[in-house]
## 1
Amino acid sequence: MAKLNDKTLLQKLSDVMPKYLAAYLVWYYSDPKTRCSWDELCNYDANFKVKGESGGQNKTEEFAEQNWLIREDVQKGMIIYMKHMKTYNQMKIYQTMLKKALNGDVNSAKYIDEFNNKLDKLTANKQEKSEIDALLEGVVINDGD
């Protein structure tokens, strides 16, 4: 079985920002009805706690919004998050359309067919590049000098 090189969303975010900020960003964008409470999130890392005289108390959500969301690394993380969610939501749309197509919906079947054709083209292009790269691996081209 091939080794997976894909990273989870938290791993991708942790590449560009500290882990506590990655956890905060995922929490921030999560559905407020289903995500853990602010206090539970604050137990994740000491960076969620106030230092000094008030040490041990949780920082506020307002503090995090006003100070963490404006950081450059978090801004980069937001882009990573949005791209990840775009792919995830596209998958959900595909699954919904597939169910409809299997139940006889013609427009959904057309969508699935077009989507699969585009996917086949993308996959073919990547495979061609991979095969060419494999063939050229280790090849040294002299420029005649």
## 2
Amino acid sequence: MMTCPCRWLGTGVLFAAFTLASSTTGNGVATRSRDLAQSKLECSFDDGLCSFTTTDPYKWTQRSGSTPSGGTGPTGDHSSSGTGSYMYVEASGANNPRKGPFVLQTTLVPVGIGELGFWYSMLGGGIGTLSVDTSHDSGASWTTHWSKAGDQGTAAWSRASFVLDDGDTTDLRFIAYTGTDFDGDAAIDDVNITRRDTPAPSISPAPSTSYEPSSSPTLLPTPSPTTELLSTEDQLDNAVARASSANVSVTVKLASTIVLARGSLNFVDLPALFTIAGEGFGLVGNGQDRCIYMTNTALQLRDLMITNGTAQYGGGIRVTSGSHLKLYNVTVEGNVGGLDGAGVWVSSSTLVLHHSLISSNHAERGGGGVKFESFNGTIEDSAITGNSAGDGGGILVQDSENIVVKRTRIEHNVASGDGGA
């Protein structure tokens, strides 16, 4: 471990009395091998959408050449000549700010395995998020394999890939949200699945310590988790109330964006994990209260937007008193903190942030994007950008211990005092 005194860095981060912990990868390896068919997919979008579909109100658009707006989008398709077609999300006009989900979806035939590869372009200050999901149950549920957030800083096409290592994969989708302005045209091209005869091994971290229990533990039956589909504030409040008295993990899925007209959604002393699968929708504050408050609770948010919350501490999300919060493919944007931590304020708790965007939040005092106080956690493959505050425009860290930051952009944040970009 390495402990450093209070100092500020020109990346929108203000640190005060914290300790960085190095991370390691274990060597435990589990493998499996099956004779599975390869899914067949190869699409350049030159002759149409292949097997992909996209529907209103937020549709992907096929285009050649550059996109209509300057300073965003590719200048041509990914081919050597640049004269072919690609698919993109138009962020101008009614498609900003923060609109979506834009869904481009296909069914994989045959169901099988392979390596999915594609090219993407994410140039412009108004870029939101782009993700790739797969489904094992014909679209009833989805798993995110790849995600990027914010301006990637180049007009050139970039390649991404991941392994489809499960023979039950039935469907594939690209899902995008626009950001804060017109210059947020995200694009994809040349999607294909190449042959992979044997799935890649799954890696499990090796335990850091070993021990011999004094006696064999008694295994108790584990209640099955429940899942609900919600579209109103009343339904969401009722689901949280029921979870407070049931010792079982609960997952709710949003069927639409929910406006929190009555104020904060509160999670207090929940006995088991509560998960909100946003399915690309959002929780929108009333402009006077924060969006989410949690204490002594384990909460997981996926594929969700948190916006328009206002509070003295944690306008978007306030996390306190031994809570555990995990954000995966979540956008926290356009929230206000009267004092600290406009986007997320974490105190004496744990935060795990993956493939997420903290953007365009403002705190009057400290931590425009996030404030950490007595905090442990991990930030990976995310972006903290365009936030503002008195101190620590992007992040304000105070009296925190173990923080791991990997492959994360912290930029374009502004502070009137210390720690602005």
